[in-house]
Structure of Glutamate synthase (NADH) small subunit:
Amino acid sequence: MADPRGFLKVRQRETQPRRPVPVRIMDWKEVYEAQDKGVLKSQAGRCMDCGVPFCHQGCPLGNLIPEWNDLTWRGKGEEAIERLHATNNFPEWTGRLCPAPCEASCVLGINQPAVTIKQVEVSIIDEAFENGWVQPLPPTRLSGKTVAVVGSGPAGLAVAQQLTRVGHTVAVYERDDKIGGLLRYGIPDFKMEKEQVDRRIEQMKAEGTRFRTGVNVGTDVTWEQLRRRYDAVVIATGATVPRDLPIPGRGLEGIHYAMDYLVPANRVVAGETVENQIDARGKHVVILGGGDTGADCLGTAHRHGAASVTTLAIGKQPPLERAAHQPWPTFPTLFEVASAHEEGGERTYLASTVEFIGEDGKLTGVKVAETEFVDGKRLPKAGTEHVIPADLVFLSLGFTGAEPAGITEQVHAEFDGRGNVARDGYYMTNTEGVFVAGDAGRGQSLIVWAIAEGRACAAAVDKHLMGSTILPAPVAPTDRAISVL
Ligand SMILES: Cc1cc2nc3c(=O)[nH]c(=O)nc-3n(C[C@H](O)[C@H](O)[C@H](O)COP(=O)(O)OP(=O)(O)OC[C@H]3O[C@@H](n4cnc5c(N)ncnc54)[C@H](O)[C@@H]3O)c2cc1C
Ligand code: SF4
């Protein structure tokens, strides 16, 4: 156990410091600064090594949190990364980007601030990379079986790494020019710099995973061709269809889906030249939707020098503390202050957008009414309409599911009623040998779920190919069951 009296001696959480706002909005680098090692140890020492560690239940990966808290407190970084990698292929991504459901279920959180689990996680993996403890783990023998993984986000990469390590020959197909999925071109560098993706790709290449970029499956090569060429195919194409807002004025110039803004912005940060990039400099920007995507647009617009940025959310402002109906250890909906929110901008709640206003075909404003709740429905309240000036609107209203991309016609895999690729309890679609993992099957979710599903799907594929498997399966497609196999 970490310090037996740690939680009594250190009663406050101390997380990683963030760079000063005026400095960090001048660049695209990560907003975080390294945490003092002494502070990190004393924070890890707050862990009580609970008999029933609810943090395990909170984490979809089943991370062995008390073990690596203890090892961090004892300064045993090499052992800590071994325990962390036992359940998580890519802790440098979750350690930076996860909303940390583990912390919401930490037992210490009942009457004190929870252990800074995510902070300990990222420190372990950063130290491991610095010290050369992250090495390729190639298989000792090959199985002779081949697998095509389509999509190179966290789900596809987790599937590929797990299957490569047990000896299958795995090729990852990606339609973009670079590997990484939303980590590459969706999530901005100020949340996670791309070096974090690049060095994992190098590790995976050294282990034997093959990467085929610039291949749009369904068009450049058909799903049926992959199905014939490989022993198994995994659909890990994400949930990329954006939700629209078909209200009057939608056709005006200046209204864009969030990803049409974020992807080119990320490419430019990566040093590429992008034609007709949406530029927010000097503009009044309105973001519709208050989630992660909206926050990423907010931080990007500030770095582009927007004159003002307003985020509109249709619902109520979430509470600062747990609501009574979301008691510990559930994951509560709370008012979140992400790094982008610290950097400025207005956040307005109970705001229903009813019309886009424009002149000569160009957007000039957004007509908004107060939201009222009628029979459980969110409706604009008559007589409360007002116009917010806007030159640019970014729609970050979520995603409605996976792109069909020939999946149904070419391999006859069906979609469910929620726009996701349907699968059974073993991640298999209704077509034998074709599996689905991550957002493509679950709907837009979180990186931690994508990795957990990727690991579990790999176990299902391995069992399908070999009859048995030693790979762990942390989650079932439909729930949080410990094992599906
Ligand atoms: C802007 C934004 C910010 C986010 N921020 C966070 C965050 O901070 N923390 C968090 O936990 N989650 C966040 N998320 C959610 C998270 O990124 C996703 O849940 C996660 O990336 C899903 O992983 P995936 O592998 O299933 O799919 P994706 O990451 O979407 O990857 C799918 C890949 O498949 C490729 N592809 C699709 N179709 C084809 C085809 N036909 N042929 C070849 N390739 C194809 C795509 O190009 C893409 O690279 C965010 C999401 C968005 C949109
Ligand atoms: S629930 Fe919190 S205090 Fe208990 S073992 Fe997990 S991290 Fe430590």
Q: What stands out?
A: The chain has three domains: 6-130, 146-240+400-466, 244-397. Residues 479-485 have pLDDT under 50 and may be disordered.
